[in-house]
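Researcher: Re-running this chain for the archive, since the previous output was lost when a drive failed. Same request as before.
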Amino acid sequence: MEILNKNKEGYGYCYTDLAEIHRYLEQNNMRYYQYIERIDGDDYIMTVPQEKIDGKWFDWNVRKGCKVVNATLNGKSNPAQEQGSALTYARRYSLLMAFGLATEDDDAESLSVVKEPTIEEAREYVLTFGKHSGKKLSEVDKNYLVWLRENSKDAYIKKCVELIKPLPNEEDQQEILQLITEVNELLDETNTDVDEFYKHYGVSSNGEMTLMQLRDAVSLLKRKVK
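Model: Regenerated structure tokens:
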């Protein structure tokens, strides 16, 4: 489903506010309800679409959410206005995603970008959810940092993790892949106890090893061959 944009010649229509969206849904026997869900310590506006069939309303098997950002409006400093804009933004975009509606809107541009943390702020950031709730990012294990980087919906947390555990560049990634293959071959060749080997490096597989650990492991295993 798509809502087209209307220009002065009349090619379609652009539904950017809630009232227009509601009129569109009413015309097509659709409606929705929304609720707030807490995810990774942040509030998300979740939307559940409904459709009227034979006089009865049925939920779609769809749940779409949009984060209520900690917004700072460009050129404005009214906290209530900031929060209201953030809520409206989340409510509308959750709704648009749930129904697959297209729109042109510059509200996102009026909200501030995610703050860039310093390395010290990243290390001192305290988690408020999950098994490491109450701990600083610098205190949790690297496997959990990787999980956060890949799964967290909080852009600020992802930026913090990037500072603490940055992704390798393309050249390093190539070397990592080569070293993983070499480590596997050397482990077989030397009949090394794999569990003890991983325990030595504090990992559960060589895919979790850093570039420096892999280099060290190759050097160690090659000496064992000799």
